[in-house]
């Protein structure tokens, strides 16, 4: 039988992980990256004997593929992807590819906001309960690399809309949809309907034996659900309405009911994650844990001692009675709304970066009531000035994390909060949101 040729576009974590698994499965593998490949990934590819190229896509090396695995960051409109599609070569995601080679079951978590936190919390609960569980997708080590090298019964996977766009046969055993709010609309012709349709792919191929966990309070999710017939078992969650199955909030207590014989209740004051948005995240993780029939005691303990991920509402320091919070992972307006909703008043807000077609309107009320000054951190801050010039007295432009922190320090009064929650992507001034968050933390520590 002829050896299959697998071409991988993008040599980041997911691409190199896919190469590891493909090599193990006996494929002929070629990796192509239009940018520069990081040193550690080059070393790994060379060690495996995988041929690769960087700073270009060579058509003669790519268009003879049996199948192509595309990094989620590469748009389907990229010239090389159009060429591949024209030739009728299938293009899939690393997640789709990896799932073919594992019997492990998957918990797949998506949503515009909260997916990293919910993925980490779910993994934390399952691991503490003694399950053999892996963590992957948009977070940590690639799913494919783990399928190639580890043995797990379950995987908790953070799944982005870009990944879902290249998933076709894949099925989640437990699918979690947290919310659908405008994000990445530049990839979806600025149409929320197209972005929402992408998110709804999380439940494709599910059967009556599978599980779908979703937010009953999310308007866009509800609109989508009216248009389809749901096959899997459903467990919605809400903070406004009591639900017979799923999870709801009543008298500051979460009620999780997947099995009427053994419901779980927990006061929100016991949760490690505070703020309204984190009640939703905790409910979603709690439902998954109950579906897997973990003990209430274990779930309560894990939901009480969880440490949140770096760069998501991360406490940095308290200096001269001013609290500094790093929420660099807030790359869209909705995330910043959640951040403002969860902190006190007297906020100096550090905002800005690469605008993805943001509508700042939803922030206006919170900015008016809580924000005393806005420090812009980005190359082009015009739209932020236009959006908030009537709502705050002070809007200042800065062009580095150090400068932003220095300005915020002078604007903040005792008892106030300096909040880095940019609502924008970071790549105008930084490598990525982690780099932005790390530079912010370093600047705060220099104060």
Automatic annotation (TrEMBL):
Keywords: ATP-binding, Cell cycle, Cell division, Cell shape, Cell wall biogenesis/degradation, Cytoplasm, Ligase, Nucleotide-binding, Peptidoglycan synthesis. GO terms for molecular function: ATP binding; UDP-N-acetylmuramoylalanine-D-glutamate ligase activity. Pathway: Cell wall biogenesis; peptidoglycan biosynthesis. One of its GO terms (cellular component) is cytoplasm. It is found in: Cytoplasm. It is an enzyme of class 6 (ligase). Residues 109-288 form the Mur ligase central domain. SUPFAM superfamilies: MurCD N-terminal domain (SSF51984), MurD-like peptide ligases, catalytic domain (SSF53623), MurD-like peptide ligases, peptide-binding domain (SSF53244). It comes from the Bacteria. Its main location: cytoplasm. Coiled coil: none annotated. GO terms for biological process: cell division; cell wall organization; peptidoglycan biosynthetic process; regulation of cell shape. Pfam families: Mur_ligase_C, Mur_ligase_M, MurD-like_N. InterPro entries: Mur-like_cat_sf, Mur_ligase_C, Mur_ligase_C_dom_sf, Mur_ligase_cen, MurD. The keyword Ligase applies. Its EC number is 6.3.2.9. Residues 311-424 form the Mur ligase C-terminal domain. ATP binds at residues 111-117. It catalyses: UDP-N-acetyl-alpha-D-muramoyl-L-alanine + D-glutamate + ATP = UDP-N-acetyl-alpha-D-muramoyl-L-alanyl-D-glutamate + ADP + phosphate + H(+). The keyword Metal-binding does not apply. Cell wall formation. Catalyzes the addition of glutamate to the nucleotide precursor UDP-N-acetylmuramoyl-L-alanine (UMA). NCBIfam families: murD. Belongs to the MurCDEF family. This is UDP-N-acetylmuramoylalanine--D-glutamate ligase. The lineage of its organism: Bacteria, Pseudomonadati, Bacteroidota, Sphingobacteriia, Sphingobacteriales. The gene is murD.
